[in-house]
Structures are given as structure tokens and as C-alpha cells.
Amino acid sequence: MKQIITKDNSITFHNEKFDETYHCLAGAVSEAKIKFVEPCNIKKLAESGSISILDICFGLGYNTAAAIDAALESNPDCKINVIGLEEDVKLFDLIKEIKAPFKSFRLIQKLDKFNSVIIDKNIQIKILLGDAKETIKKINQKFDAVFLDPFSPKKCPGLWTLDFLKSIKQVMKPGSILATYSCATHLREKLKKLEFQVKDGPIFGRKSASTIAIFK
Ligand SMILES: C[S@@+](CC[C@H](N)C(=O)[O-])C[C@H]1O[C@@H](n2cnc3c(N)ncnc32)[C@H](O)[C@@H]1O
Question: pLDDT tens-digit profile of 101-159?
Fold first, then answer.
């Protein structure tokens, strides 16, 4: 896979099958923090002492790593539970080679196809390998925050459908927040149909705002 240095000097890759990059070129690490961690209020949630996160399309693990760093910065004793959904098992090898500026990235680098659960003190990260449309049905817990980070609706339409969004809502706690980079009208309409409160998220690396959906 072709490596790309993004504008904040962090690394991403170009996926040939989808012909898209894993992160925006304005900054891979900045995108994780600005479009996912901050809109989901991870620091604030961590103050309560425990936080559960569903990371849909785990990829290189940047969104999870940024969330763990933010949660521990806010509350070093916070219990953190992450479930990641990812279909590409080859990424585990790639992750081991990346230098990413997250304190918690060493944990993510311990993941592999034989060891898809990492437990370290108060932190648990578990990856459900396979198509997220199926693996989400195996989840029997509810989350405080959801990161929805598939490739674009054009390249990965199955992860932007009403049915899939419905499956996501079923594993969210009342009051929880979903963050995604897309601002697509069809996405926002589906979220509204499912009775999410839909708001503009931050603008980063493009002209339009990302999307925040609150489960009221
Ligand atoms: C934009 S990248 C995610 C980047 C990631 N969130 C990060 O922080 O590095 C999209 C990811 O979705 C994964 N993916 C694509 N289709 C999928 C599916 N049906 N189920 C689960 N994962 C899928 C790809 O393998 C890729 O890792």
C-alpha cells in the first residue's frame, strides 16, 4: 500500500481496492481528533470514570488511539472499553510498522489476527473481524460514543444504509453521540428518519462540515 505523509506530518495509506486514502490529506491524526474524538466529547465522558466506544471501520486505529489518549488525559483512572469493527485482517501487520504520535498506539500495535483482544490495566480493545454489517449484530452492549468512518458512500455504500444505521442505533445508549466525516444529505436524512438529532460537526480538510448525530 502506498504511504502518504499528510499535512500534519502524520502517515496514512492509499487503499487500492477502494481507491481512497484512510484519512484526509489535511492531516490523518488531526482528523481523528477533530472529526471523531472532539465531537463525541470523549474527554467529558471520561470524567464519569468509564467510557465505551464503538469504532466502526477501525482501519489503522487512529480514532481509537486518539480517543484513549484524550480519555486518559482527562481522567487517568478511566475505564475504557473499545469495540472495533474491521474486515481487513492485513491491517494488523501494517499497524505494527507505523509511527503514530499517540501514547496508546503501542497497545493497538499488539493486536493481531490471533489476538484481537487487548487488555491493559483499565483499557480493553476488542476487534470484531469481518463485515461490519454482520459483526455489529453480535454486539450485546451499548456505547457512549460511535465513530462511523467507512470509505465514502460511493465506494462503500453498504455501510451508509438505513438498515446499517438502524443496527448502529440499537447499540447506542440514550444521550450517546455518533460522529462521522460525511455531510451527505442522504446520510443526514436517514439519521433524522431514525430520530437522531443531527448537527453540523467541525469543518476540517474540506469546505463542508462533518456530521454529529445525537441519540435523544
Ligand atoms: C477510512 S478507513 C478507516 C480509518 C480508520 N478509522 C483509522 O482511524 O485509521 C475505512 C476502513 O473500513 C474498512 N472496511 C471497508 N468495508 C468494510 C466492511 N464492510 N466492514 C468492516 N470494515 C470495512 C476498510 O478496511 C478500512 O480499514
Answer: 999 999 999 998 877 899 998 999 999 999 999 999 999 999 999 999 999 999 999 99
Q: What is the pTM of this model?
A: 0.97
Separation of CA 190 from chain center: 20
Joined together, the cell numbers standing for residue 166 give 438502524
Q: Which atom of ligand 1 is nearest to the CA of 158?
A: 19
Q: Domain segments of the chain: what residues?
A: 27-215
φ, ψ dihedrals at 215, nearest 5°:
-85, 105
Name the β-bridge partners of 55.
84, 147
Amino acid at 59: G
Closest by CA position to 178, among listed 199, 193, 157, 159: 199
Task: Say how far apart CA 156 and CA 33 lie, in whole Å.
Answer: 23
Pocket, ligand 1, Cβ cutoff 6 A: 22, 32, 57-63, 85-88, 91, 131-132, 149-151, 156, 158-159
Fold of domain 27-215 = Rossmann fold (3.40.50)
Does residue 118 contact residue 147 with C-beta atoms inside 8 Å? no
Determine the atom of ligand 1 nearest the C-alpha atom of 63: 8
- The residue whose CA has the least distance to atom 19 of ligand 1 is 131
